[in-house]
């Protein structure tokens, strides 16, 4: 188990991480999700042992690994890393890359040549590269290079695998394929994975739990479903799921009246206290139900309608607010200039169904 307590990291006067508290269970797949500059890589570097924290501690399997005056260096931690840039050596073949940790790493060291060969074959098979084992990095595609980096990272069976945006240099289709492969490898190996990404789709699809970060702090920790369906802050509701934040007023605890439509009222569907306190109601783009304009309903004028294959993405002007709506292609189509009514799916079950069908 890894325990992070009160972790802080300053670079000079600048605080890159502040009061980070997190417990990771053995075998968990944790995604660290946040925008550029929020401190994701800093957290990963602290976990790897590249630098000391300014305050707080990291404990790995009940042993203090880092504090402001102690640092267990990377080579003394049973960890591996995979980077966005692959970090391969141009003069080594695929097979030599994968054998490297077995020869040199303190934890993965495997003395017998035969045992080494078995482990290399296993790792090559796991990432589907057996047929390319004699190639050099310059002779591989981006996806194949990342598979080499992955095989090199897992061959020594580390207890912790740190991945820093490993798929961001790959094209969209390959990213989807690699998501599945990393998921399969995680299930097979049972290694604890910390996976840094700014891509919400990756985090939602792959992780057991997501840690959403902003500005050096943790905003929310939870399962993908809870992060998506029950964001606790305005930041999480807009960063994950791209909610529209409708302005209005909460009447009592349970009823919301949109500012521009006093005759409309929406019920509470588990909106957090923090969001309520700002008199906002978050509505995700796919949560809207468009219809012909009706009296006593929220309405707007379609500005744009973009065909996306499985969905139509509308931009709708409603009073001063521009509302984004994702509608199924099977629903009634609207055109720019049409006045439409905007209702929302409020049943929690409906919302979960919608979320899981995306
Ligand atoms: N060595 C350093 N010296 C000074 N400031 C730094 C240093 N490294 C990072 N920072 C700053 O700390 C903040 C967090 O950086 P970090 O690299 O952890 O962010 P990130 O979330 O990984 O961003 P990205 O997704 O762009 O890689 C940023 O504002 C960055 O400019």
TrEMBL record:
Q: Which organism is it from?
A: Niallia alba
Q: Does the keyword Nucleotide-binding apply?
A: yes
Q: Key word Transport present in the record?
A: yes
Q: Which UniProt keywords apply?
A: ATP-binding, Nucleotide-binding, Transport
What name goes with this protein?
ABC transporter ATP-binding protein
Annotated ABC transporter domain residues: 2-240
Q: Which InterPro entries has this protein been placed in?
A: AAA+_ATPase (IPR003593), ABC_SmlMolc_Importer (IPR050093), ABC_transporter-like_ATP-bd (IPR003439), ABC_transporter-like_CS (IPR017871), Mo/tungstate-bd_C_term_dom (IPR008995), P-loop_NTPase (IPR027417), Transp-assoc_OB_typ2 (IPR013611)
What PANTHER family does the annotation carry? AMINO ACID ABC TRANSPORTER, ATP-BINDING PROTEIN-RELATED, SPERMIDINE/PUTRESCINE IMPORT ATP-BINDING PROTEIN POTA
User: SMART domains attached here?
Assistant: AAA
State the source organism's domain of life: Bacteria
An annotated Gene Ontology molecular function: ATP hydrolysis activity
Q: Name one GO cellular component term.
A: ATP-binding cassette (ABC) transporter complex
């Amino acid at each position: 188990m890894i325990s992070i307590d009160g972790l802080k990291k300053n670079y000079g006067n600048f605080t890159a991480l502040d009061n980070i508290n997190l417990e990771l269970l053995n075998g968990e797949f944790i995604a660290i999700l946040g925008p550029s500059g929020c401190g994701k890589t800093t957290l990963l570097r602290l976990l790897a042992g590249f630098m000391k924290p300014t305050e707080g501690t990291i404990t790995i399997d009940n042993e203090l690994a880092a504090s402001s005056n102690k640092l267990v260096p990377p080579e003394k931690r049973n960890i591996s890393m995979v980077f966005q840039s692959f970090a391969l050596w141009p003069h080594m073949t695929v097979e030599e890359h994968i054998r490297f940790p077995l020869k040199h790493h303190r934890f993965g060291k495997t003395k017998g040549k035969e045992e080494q060969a078995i482990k290399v074959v296993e790792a090559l098979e796991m990432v589907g590269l057996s047929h390319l084992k004699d190639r050099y990095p310059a002779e591989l595609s981006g996806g194949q290079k990342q598979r080499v980096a992955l095989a090199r990272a897992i061959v020594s069976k580390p207890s912790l695998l740190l991945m820093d945006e490993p798929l961001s240099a790959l094209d969209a289709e390959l990213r989807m394929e690699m998501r599945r492969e990393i998921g399969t490898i995680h299930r097979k190996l049972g290694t604890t994975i910390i996976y840094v990404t700014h891509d919400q789709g990756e985090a939602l699809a792959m992780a057991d739990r997501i840690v959403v970060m902003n500005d050096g702090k943790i905003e929310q920790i939870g399962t993908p479903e809870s992060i998506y369906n029950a964001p606790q802050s305005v930041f999480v509701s807009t960063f994950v799921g791209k909610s529209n934040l409708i302005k209005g007023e909460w009447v009592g605890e349970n009823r919301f009246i949109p500012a521009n439509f006093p005759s409309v009222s929406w019920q509470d569907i588990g909106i957090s206290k923090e969001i309520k306190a700002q008199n906002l109601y978050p509505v995700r783009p796919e949560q809207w139900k468009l219809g012909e304009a009706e009296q006593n309903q929220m309405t707007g004028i379609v500005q744009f309608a973009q065909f996306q294959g499985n969905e139509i993405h509308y931009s709708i002007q409603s009073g001063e607010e521009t509302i984004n709506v994702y509608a199924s292609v099977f629903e009634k189509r609207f055109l720019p200039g049409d006045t439409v009514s905007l209702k929302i799916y409020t049943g929690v079950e409906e919302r979960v169904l919608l979320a899981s069908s995306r």
